[in-house]
Structure formats: structure tokens, C-alpha cells
Predict the structure.
Amino acid sequence: MKGGRTVRGIVAVAAAIAGTVAIWTWAPAADAPDFPTSEVVDAQASFWTNVYGRWSLSQVAVHDKACPALVYEIVNLPGAAGEAYTPAQEGFVQDVRASWEGRLAAIEGKVDAGIPLEDDEKALALRVTDACGTDALRGASLRLRSQRGLRERFRRGLAVSARYDARFREIFRSAGLPEDLALLPHVESSFQHSARSSAGAVGVWQFTRSTGRKFLRVNAAVDERLDPVASARGAARYLREAHDVLGSWPLALTSYNHGVAGMARARAQFGDDFEAIVRAYDAPSFGFASKNFYAEFLAAREVATHPEVYFPEGVAFEEPLAADDVLLPQPMTIHQVQARYGVDRATLRRLNPAWSAKAAAGRIALPAGHRVWLPEGTPAGRRAMADVAVAEARPDPPPAAPSAKVAKAAKPAHRYHKVREGDTLWSVAKRYGLEVAELRKMNGLTAKSSRIRPGQRLRVGYASAG
């Protein structure tokens, strides 16, 4: 790869397996001040860069779970490589791991008993300690893990990502967040619309139902987790809130896997030392996936940003999404949407994956404020965009001149919210039925100066007339 510092231990490991498959090192991008790295994170990112951009589905790396840079062997699967292992392939990988477990356990046993090591055992022990530290030999046989290459899957996801990249980047840019957060689905789902995790997370952005209900519309009519663009808006809201609480992108991004509360506990213990958190934070659910999540994002960013380096054969990028969206001013059934915008049902259902079966059949109405996708550039799409423009540009009608008595009685009183510990702009806006942009405007805040503090009074509207 391009020049950059070499992670300690990678060269030694690469040399040890020379003639099999090269291990490439990862150089942190100089243009990414929002996404800092460290020696530990660099080593993790090097590993995941190989997983995403170098190693194919037919290759499996046997490595140390706590120190992924230590790759013992890369083996080629027998038979054709599919999305999942065949029984024979699964047995093959288990046998390879068992062989390494036996070798490492034997070395550890000899060291504990004071028995001299053979030359090949000395070389292996040196590889472990050189790559992962002097104490790494103890328990090494218990830390073995196998990781399949994902190059083909990443390349497919990269092709699909072109459909949404411009929209996603605009969402994050408008929210005052780093645009490259638009690349996070490469880690979460490989941009697979049908992706579903064992925890019940679904869609390109992998929201669980509970988190989806907090940041998206998830009800009987729509499940915005299934709409890539709508869920990108939810992800921007989530990541803004997480960053406000946690204070850095390594912590905020890791919270996407481990939760804000979990990362807040880690921060309370280790401060902003993310490397210390990766090395030493001990929590039941802070396992391999959580410890590697930020490094996976950095690796995905590297591979996605330089497709010509990792996929010299080319990538068949999809065309950008061609559709217009309109906010429904009131609850409407699919039949009413059809009638208003002159779009057939099949097209509406194809463009709106978030609709439930009942909503798509017209048995329940779509909620007011829901964004409906319509064909771009068609009369329907132009009318939808015109509806939005007219609604936003229409001035309030001038009031009739009231009597002095009526005017005094009718003068509105501002309504305020006193900020409490844990409040964010998003949570306050949601509580009072506002958009974050609207709340910012009411209080003279900008996207770059949106921090609020306990005790602060925020305008949230007018007091009720009753």
C-alpha cells in the first residue's frame, strides 16, 4: 500500500508466512482529523483492511483474538466458496484451528514447566511476543479466532453504495457531522437491504426495533429502518447525540455497536484514552466486535475511498438514487397518494420499502410527516417538490387588526424548557414535537454551536391558550 508507518509486528508476521499470502499494512489518512488512530487501532485497522480489500471468501485467516495483527496462517478453503461454509469447509477450518491450539498449548506448557523449546517452537513463541507483547504467550491457545476474507462482499457493497452515497453525505453534512460517516454501512451490513442480525437489527443501517423507535418512525404503517435514506437520517441523529455525550468519534462510533451507556461507563473508567479502552475495558458485552468496531470503520473508509487500489478489476457502481421525496401534510392512504401524484401502486411500493403490508394494501393510512418517495423528474415528482416549496415559502396571512383589549389578551407567551442532565437538542425537540433545525432557529443556535448545558432555558414554542 501507500507509504505510512509500519505497525510493529506486522512485518515479522508477514515474513513468517511469506510465500502464502502477503499481509498489507494500513497507513492512517492524514486528512481525517475527526478519526484519530493509535498503535493498537492501526494494527486492528491493518487486519480489517486485509479482510475487506485483500482476502477473498475462499481464504480464512487464523489469528489472535486480542491482537488481530498476529495472523498465524491464511488457508484456502477446499471446494467452491459460497456465502456460508459447507460442512466440509467448516470441519476443515476447525481442524486448522485445533492444530494451532495444540502447538500453542504445548509451548505454553513447556514454558510453565521450564522445559526447553525446540527451534520451531522458539520461532513461534517469538512471533507471539514480538507482535503482541511479552505476556501474550500465556493463554494464546485460548485466543485463537478464524476470520474469513470479505473482499467480494465488500466489492458488492461498494457497488450498491454508489446509489446512496451523495444522499447520505448530504444528510451528514447538513447535520454538521463528518461526511465519511456515510460509509458506516460497509461495516454494519455491506449495504445489503435485507441484512438482519441475531439481535434483531435490520436494514442497511442495522437499527434494532427499540433504537429505531427512538430515532425513526417504526409503527404499524411504516418501518423506516428498511428505507436506507430515512434510516441514514436516523443514524445522523443517533451519532450526533452519541458524540454530544461521549465527546469523540472513536467512542461515538463504538457506541453504535456497544451503546452510549456502555461507552459512557468505559469513558468514566479510562477517560478519552481509546487505546486503553480497547486494551483493558472489561464488560460482559464489550467483546471482539465492540473492540474492533472503530478499526473496522477506519478500514472500510480506506478501502471504499481507494477502490482502484483494492479492486483494480473495477467496480460496477450503481446509478445514484433517482427519486424525489415529499412530506405528507396529513395522514394519507396509498390510494390517496396515487390520486394526488398520479403514480401507480407498483411504483410506489417499489420506491417505498418502509411501508408495511397493511399500508401498501391501503388498509391503514401513512402518517403525517412521513416522507414518500416518488419518481424523480416526473410530473408527480415535480409536483411533490413544488408542494414542499410552496408550503415552506407561503407567508402567514396578515391578522385582522384586533382591539387593544383583544390584542393584549391574545399576545402569546413563550414556552420554555429547562435543560436537565442528559438532555440533547434531539431529545428536547422530540419531546415538544419539533425538528432540531426548528429548535436551533428558535434559540439562535447553529449546527456548529449546538451544545446545551443543564440549567439552560430553551424556547420550545408558545404556552397553551387553555
Q: What stands out?
A: The longest strand covers residues 59-64.
